Structure formats: C-alpha cells, structure tokens
Amino acid sequence: MNLISKEEFYKSVTYLTCYELLHPWSKSCVKACLFMSLNTVKGGTKFFIPIYLCKIIINKNKLSKRYLLLQFRCYIRSVIYATLYATFFMTSMCTCRHLCGQFFYYNVAFLGGFFGGASIFIESEFNKTLTTVLWVNLCIETMIRYLEAYGILKPNKLFFGVSFMVSCSLMTHLMMEHDPSKKFLKLWFFTPNTTDLKQMEKVKQCFHKDSCTNYIFQGAYKYFLIGYLVQTLKTVLPRAGIILKQPLLLLQLLFRKNNFMMASFFGSFIAIFRAINCYYSGKKKPEVMGFLASTSYILKHDVTIAITSFTTTLQYLLHPLRQTLEEKYKIPYRELLFMLCNGYLMHARFLHPDQCPQYVINMLKTTTNGAAENVFRNTLKWSTNKEYVKNYFFKIKENALEKFYRKLNF
Ligand SMILES: [Zn+2]
Ligand SMILES: [Zn+2]
C-alpha cells in the first residue's frame, strides 16, 4: 500500500540529499525551484484557460468589457497562485532538508504541501472558498481509501447509499433552518429556495406559477443539463493538455456513459424533491424531502456525491465556529484548513499514491507542466512497492518499465 514503507524510508531514503530525492534534473536547489516555477507558469496558463472560459460561458448574461477584464485579472491571479504553490512546495522541502539534515517520513511531502498551500492567500475570495471546500472533499475521499486499503471499511454500495441518505436528510434540514441572509459557497449542486418554502408554509399551497407537473419536469430538465455539464467538465478539464494534442478524444469524453448517469442523478434528485414538496403542499418536511430525493443515488453510485453531501452538512454545522474564528479572533480559518488539507494530500500523493484521488494526480501533472510528475517518478526509485512501480510504468508505456529496471538494476 505504501510506495516506500516507513522502515525502508529510514533505512535508505532519510539521508538522501534533496538533489537525489526531489530534483535530479539539477544539483542546485535554486535552479531546481526556478525550473519548477517556470514550468508551472506554462502549465498553469494552460490549466486555467478552460476553467475561466467555462465561467464566462455560464455567466454569459453578465458579459461586458468590465466583467471580461475582471475575469482576466482573476485568471492572472490564479496563474500566480499556482506558480507560488509549486515554488513554495519545492523551496520548503529543500529548506527543510538543509535545516534538519535529513528527511522525515511524515513531513517529507506534508511540509511542502502545507507551505505550498500558503499561496491560497493570493486567490480571490470566491476561489479561496471553492478550492478549500474541494480540498476538504478530496481529503475525506483519501481517508476513505485508506480505511478501505487497511480493511477497516469495506467498499459497500449499500453502506454508502444509506450514509448518503442520512447525511442528505440532515443537510436538507440544516439548509432550510439556515438564515438565508448568511450565504456561503457550497459544492452541493442544489439549495432549496427557503424564502419560497416559507411562503408556501404560510399559504398552505404550492408556490409556483405553472402546474405541479410542469414545475417538476422543468426542474428535472434544468438539473439534468447541469449534471451533464458538471461531470463532463470533471472529465475534460484534467485532460485539457492531452485534448489539445488529440482533439478527437474530446468527442469520446463528451459521450461517456458516466456523464449521462450523473445527469440522471441530478435530474431525478430534483424531480423527487419537488414532487414531495408539492405532495405536502407547503408543510415543512425537509428531512423527508432530502431522504427520499437521495434515493436517486441508485442511478449513480459515486462516493464523491456522498462525500460532497457530508462536507456540506459539516459546513453548515461548523459555520458558527468559522464566523467566530474569522470575525472575532481574525484567524484565517479557511486558508489554514486549505494548507492542512494540502499537506495531507501531498503526503498521500508521494507516499500512498494508490489512495490519492486521481484528480490531485492529474491536476499536479497539468499545472506544473509535468515537473511535479518528474519529482514523483524520481521517488519511485526508492519504492518498496515493486508491484505499484510495475503497474505505473505499464500504464504509461510498456518499454518504459524495461528502461527503468535496466537503469536501477533491480
Ligand atoms: Zn534542493
Ligand atoms: Zn406544486
């Protein structure tokens, strides 16, 4: 399960220089960091273009010269964020090695990730929240993978389905009880209109202009499209670099079954939610609505969906704590959370790659224009998990494995 076991790490890796372990392309730490930074400028420039283009297409109603200029500024800010992220990552790992005189198993990648994460301070408020919530999701996913790998948690569809239904029910309850004036960004795709629902409660009847059937179908159709878009972007964006070289791949990715299953999940969730709402005609039943709508999970067994619902529930529960820390004590709660999550994810990326979510692997590879991948491939030399190394190179190119083995003589 580990790429390098703890025993093996303290036997053969701990006293390696940072040149041997991290940047074999240059003996100088300064040159190595510069190489990483320049590559991230290249990679980051490519990585953020489709993201900002999608943002502009989604907000096409707001299109104006001022809006485009603002998006361009945000784009530049994101590229700087990515560059600082990679630079801090490399610099802190080299500095740590020079100061301590050796590498430690638990901080070799964690510290790099933690300090690299400090670059989040430069991002816009919206991106800060979005990235932090996404990173918390990815951390929970990694933890679940660990638990599964160690046999503590069995990968069971029924267990995830029931957990999702319970979490969804609690989440809907918290959403409806939450003060609508205190909005915050969530990754969950749908927030019920609490003002409309309160009106419905007063008049004891449906609060929509069309018939109930139209209201249900319109919602289902709209969210079907949103679901399709979300899943497609999730598939296409991390592969943006390959698509530029092989444009036909885009067509294949657009018609993947997965995209339509996610679309069906979104659509049916809203249809059930609205149908129950109409059935009770204004009586407040958030727990029932959330619980029954989440049966759509049958259509798309996706752990990420269950995790997103769980993270959103946590966001609601921890919202008062966040407000106290940020407003009363001026502690950058969100930024610190991101840095910790990033440290944890980098630890997983370098020492437990089997448990690291694919999104993190692809994102690092694309934004650093392959430079982070070079660092990772170099750590494979000291791997005790021969099976992993074999599969890894098999996936890239069959003859790459032969070359690699010949070089190492193992
Ligand atoms: Zn170095
Ligand atoms: Zn109705």
Strand content: under 5%
Shape: globular
Q: Roughly what percent helix? A: over 70%
What would you report as the Rg, rounded to the nearest angstrom?
Answer: 24 Å
Structural class: mainly alpha
How many distinct folded domains? 2
Domain Transmembrane protein 135 N-terminal: 17-145
Membrane topology: Multi-pass membrane protein
Main location: membrane
Protein name: Transmembrane protein 135-like
Please provide a written account of the structure:
Residues 17-145 form the Transmembrane protein 135 N-terminal domain. The chain crosses the membrane at residues 74-91, 103-122, 158-176, 261-280. This protein starts with 5 loop residues before the first helix and ends with a helix. With 410 residues, the chain is an all-alpha fold. It has 19 helices and no strands. α3 runs antiparallel to α4 (65-100), α7 packs antiparallel against α13 (286-293) and α18 crosses α19 (398-408). It binds zinc ion (2 copies). One zinc ion binds at residues 18-19, 22-23, 29, 32, 94. One zinc ion binds at residues 206, 208, 212, 215, 278.
Helices and strands in order:
Blueprint: H1 6-13, H2 18-21, H3 29-58, H4 65-100, H5 110-116, H6 125-149, H7 157-177, H8 194-203, H9 212-236, H10 240-245, H11 248-254, H12 257-279, H13 286-293, H14 303-328, H15 333-351, H16 358-367, H17 371-379, H18 386-396, H19 398-408
Helix pairs in contact: 3-4, 3-16, 4-5, 5-15, 6-14, 6-15, 7-13, 7-14, 9-12, 12-13, 18-19
The structure holds zinc ion (2 copies).
